[in-house]
Every structure is written in C-alpha cells, then in structure tokens.
Amino acid sequence: MSFDVDAARARFSALDSGFAFLDAPGGTQVPDEVGDAVARALREASGNLGAPYATGAAVEAILARAKDDAAQFLGATPDEIVFGMNMTSLNFALSRTAARDFEPGGEILTTALDHDGGVATWVEVAADRGMTVLVADATDKLTVDYEDVERKLSERTRVLAFALAANATGSIADAKRLCRLAREAGALSWVDAVHYAAHEPIDVEEIGCDVLLCSPYKFCGPHLGIAFVRRDVGERWRPYKARPSASTPLGRRFETGTSPFELLAGFSATIAYLESLGGMNVLRRYERGLGERFLAGLPDDATLYGPPTLDERVPTFLLNVDGVPAEQLARRLAERGLGVWAADNWYCVALADRLPPTSLRVGFIHYNTVEEVDRLLAELAAADLREA
After folding, report:
1. How far is CA 326 from CA 92, 307, 381, in A?
2. CA triplet 83, 84, 85: central angle to 5 degrees?
C-alpha cells in the first residue's frame, strides 16, 4: 500500500498554518478525528463503570475497545494491557509493584541510552530496597554495548531495563537479544518503547519481553501511558489499589482510580487513524525515506551524534552545526517556520558526558513531507544562519 501524505495531513487542522513540526520526539500533532472522539466521549459517555444506565455501558465499551486496540498494536492480549496517566507515572507504579519482593543486595541493569523516565524509577526502588543500579555503556556510535550488558548481568540482576529506541539519538536496541539475555540471567526484561512505538511495529511475543511501555502522544494520540505486562509475570504481583476495585481481568489489577475514558476513546481513534493509513509498516517505510533524504543532504559542517545510517536508528537526529549555538539555531529555525528543539541531556542522564553541552534534535513523523525536509536542509546550509 502506498502512502498519501497530503491526504493524511488534511486530517490535521494543526498543520494548516504551514509551520513545519519537525519535533516528533517531543510529541506529535493530533488529527482532528482524535480530538472529536475525546469530545464526543465527554458529551456522551461522562460516567463510570458499573452505572446501570447508558453512560455506564458507554464507558465499559470504550474501555473494552481501548484494551483490544492496545493489544493489537502491541501484539498482546487485552487482559495484559494496563492504562495509566503517562508512561513515567505508570512505570513508577508497576516498578513499585514488581519490587515488593525484591531483596537487598540485588541489582538492576539499565543502559546509557535510556530516558530517565525508564531509569529514575529503578534508582528509587534501589534506594528503598537496598539494591544497586548498574548502567551498561554505549558504543562509540552511541548504540547499546551488548558486551558490557553481558558483563554486568549476573545472578544478582533482578531487572534489565532498556529503551527500545533512544529518545536522544534515535538509536535502536536489539530487543530480542536483550530480552533473551535477561531471561537467561533470571531477570525481568523491562522495555521503554515510548520513542520506538511511534516509528516501528511492535510484537511483544516476538520480542519476548516481560513488561513494555509506550505513550500515544508520540504517535498522534492523547497523553496516556500504556503498558504490556506478561500474564505469568503480572499474576505473581500484588498490586497497590483500592480493595473494592476490579482485579479482573489481569490488567485491571494495576489500574487505580477512574480511568480517563475520554482519552481512551481518543486512543482508539488514533489506532483507527493509523490503520486507515496502512498501519505501521507503511508509515515506517515512508518515514525512513524522509530520514535517508535528511542524512544525505546534511551540510558538511553539521556534526551528527549516533548511528550514521538508518540501519540502527529511527528518523530522530541529534546534531550541531559548527559555529552556531544550538539554542540560537532552534530560535532562528522557528522564526523561519521550522520547529525543532535544543537542549542539553535530553533526559538521557547517563549519556550526558558523551553529548555536547547543547544540541539540536530533529525528528520526523509520517505527516512530515519531503518539502519540509528540504526546507530544513536549505536553512541548515544557509550562510546567514551562521551570522552572529
């Protein structure tokens, strides 16, 4: 199936201005139909589960459909899906649950490429439980150093946590390899797929992970946290929750309070939108074409951090242009209708000493166009951009 980017863009009022949003790693724009689904749920399904009238049935249907949609998106079963406020909050909640039986002296292994939303939770668990957090190094290409992972895994490892795609550099991890290593060590494999899920299809069964988290706001949806918890793992955990709350099916055990049903309706509309475009495989091919065009056109005085090709990355790029401070570059590009960000560590705390003090991050998503890529390249090469 071919992809019609103009037809997709026509579904976003946010794109009508002509401003080029090249900042997908920080969150994407949302198609109108997703906003409409949120508003419709607020109008027609403002209630709670169990109400013996129409709104109770409506929210039950919204929740059931959202579970089905998330399961299809991740290759899981609906009762292995857990919803939360956002990935970080959900990660803190699930890690606390998993750690209830952890003993002092155990270890948690993360990687230098991880977003701190996938690390800080384990730092706090370690502080509470008398454990140690280790960090596997990154290679010179800013990819996972698998040999260092193997060196640091041991019988003391309780969790191997890693980012499937680095929020900072776009570097992709070999998830199947890391999950296999965790399994062989008797550890849980805990995957941050927030950045990856926006660009690549996911199948948790193929990956072999125990827990995987993502966030729809990275792929044109509302702000939510979504987790997959493998059934035989979740069944062993004792959840934190109000006692009368439903504990079946499995995923409901880890959901606290009233769900944001309107956002779940928006999430289902997001999945329907992505499927209407051909699904993630179609969007992946298109986005990789944008990324390849960008890499091929980078000016000679641009320094790229991370893998040099699309073979080991999603279309997210960290760079600097010689002689132009990143903050200044981001401001000038914004003035010229191009939205990118400048920052320091990009929440990748362990990698901070391997990155420049500040850098520019560019990230493409499927609603970006070849023309927008070319506009950005032309501006990056423009002589006046380098003037003080």
Report:
1. 32, 20, 14
2. 140
Tokens standing for 268?
Answer: 């289902």
Q: Which string of b and e fits 266-303 if b means at least 16 CB within 10 Å?
A: bbbbbbebbeebbebebbbebbbbbbeebbeebeeebe
Q: Supply 62's token pair.
A: 């919204």
Q: In what order do the strands lie in the sheet with 341-343?
A: 302-305, 316-321, 359-363, 341-343
Count how many Cα atoms sit within 13 Å of the Cα of residue 246 in the half-sphere of its side chain. Answer: 14
Q: Tokens 């988290």 belong to which residue?
A: 213
Separation of first and last alpha carbons in the chain: 47
pLDDT in tens, the chain (388 residues): 689 999 999 999 999 999 999 999 999 999 999 999 999 999 999 989 889 999 999 999 999 999 999 999 999 999 999 999 999 999 999 999 999 999 999 999 999 999 999 999 999 999 999 999 999 999 999 999 999 999 999 999 999 999 999 999 999 999 999 999 999 999 999 999 999 999 999 999 999 999 999 999 999 999 999 999 999 999 999 998 887 777 778 888 898 888 999 999 999 999 999 999 999 999 999 999 999 999 999 999 999 999 999 999 999 999 999 999 999 999 999 999 999 999 999 999 999 999 999 999 999 999 999 999 999 999 999 867 666 5
Among the listed residues 58, 51, 9, the one whose alpha carbon sits nearest the alpha carbon of residue 32: 9
Task: Give the span between the Cα atoms of 40 and 262, in whole angstroms.
Answer: 8
What is the SS3 assignment for 188? strand
Q: Which two tokens stand for residue 195?
A: 């950045």
Sign of CA dihedral 48, 222, 116, 174: positive
Q: 9-16: long-range contacts (C-beta < 8 A, 24 or more apart)?
A: 9/367, 9/369, 11/273, 12/367, 15/367
pTM for the whole thing?
A: 0.96
d(CA 160, CA 339): 35
Nearest to 194 by CA among 77, 86, 330: 86
Structure tokens at 196: 């990856």
Count helices and strands (H / E) in the chain: 13, 13
